[in-house]
Structure formats: structure tokens, C-alpha cells
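Pasting as-is:
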Amino acid sequence: MRNYTLIFCLIIFSLDTLLWAKQDSPVDFHQLLQQTELQVAQAQTVNGLWRDTQQLVKQAKELFNAGKQQEAIALLHEAQSQAQLGYQQAIDQADKELVPSYLRQ
């Protein structure tokens, strides 16, 4: 049940990120980058950083430098979502026994 909840949240956050990036409200890339890097650092503190999150931030910087600001902002929003979800997942699973019972001795 928890896996379905996590997948559902991922889908919702992904759709929210896409919709957020398409809005015409001005978003400061550098401020968003700073917020994203803070959330990535927070996820790292609990070993909850997902595999592609830092790559998304790197790609966003490259896109911004290439003049593709809207695409860069969309990637930063996705990286923020991944950092938040990774942090929450690490907190939720901190007390769980991650080794299956058939592998325990």
C-alpha cells in the first residue's frame, strides 16, 4: 500500500511540476536554484537523495546557460520534488527493517 502511495505522490508531483513550469509568473532561476540546492542538501543529511536529482540540477544549470530558462526551471522543480520525496522516504523508512526475513539469520 505504501508503494502505491509513493508512486501516486510521484505522479502528482511530476504533473504539478509540469504545470508550474508552464505558468507565466516570473520565477527567478537563481533563487529557485538556491532553494533546490538546500533541499538536496537536506535529503543528503538523511541519505535520502535519489540517483538522478543532482544530475537534474546540473542539466538545469546547463540549460539556463544555453538560454533555455523555462526548461531549466522545469528541471529545478522536478529536482525539488525528488529531493522532498527522497527526504520523506528516508524519514519514513528509517525505523523499518529493510532486510527481508528470509535473508536474516
